[in-house]
Amino acid sequence: MRSSFAKCSAKASQIAIRGCFQITTPTMETLVSCYKMDIPSLVVMSFLMACTSVARSDDNVTSKAVVKTNVQPAQVISATLDKTGQHPGTAPVKGPATVTCTKAVSDIPRPQPIPSCSIVAPGYSGQLNKGQSAGTSGAGTVTLNCNGQGNVLSCSATVQ
After folding, report:
1. What is the C-alpha to C-alpha distance for residues 154 and 147, in angstroms, rounded to an integer?
2. CATH code: domain of residue 128
3. Could you say which of 119, 121, 127, 138 has the lowest number of CB atoms within 10 Å?
4. Within this chain, do residues 154 and 95 fall inside the same structural domain, yes or no?
5. Residues 82, 44: one domain?
6. Distance in angstroms between the alpha carbons of the first and the last residue of the chain
7. pLDDT tens digits along 90-107
């Protein structure tokens, strides 16, 4: 089994596409999905022609196709709280994501409570201290606000 590869094969007596995908999530979980699909020969021929390399032996045609995953780059969002109110930061997400509070500071020394990131996102609503992360459940908008004591609060988070 190879990560991010699918194996396509066709024999004279059997037409099938078989494949396994191995994906490592941001939380280091390994997910494996395998499949076998019997389909008409015309579709197999089209699929094999699209594959990147072809090796022939006897009545077999074997090829490997690279499968691209939809990986979004990290987004950085920032927010502030001052005498005029909250000034939130937002980021759209296309699916499940990880939100990490990277900065939460106040203009006063030793504020109580310690400043934190307030996150509202699909499947999650809560406070994250600097360095903490939370997962979202799907597509939507991640909203960041600052929480804590002080005249001016500033916070940032990464969304990946």
Report:
1. 9
2. 2.60.120
3. 138
4. yes
5. no
6. 27
7. 999 999 999 999 999 999
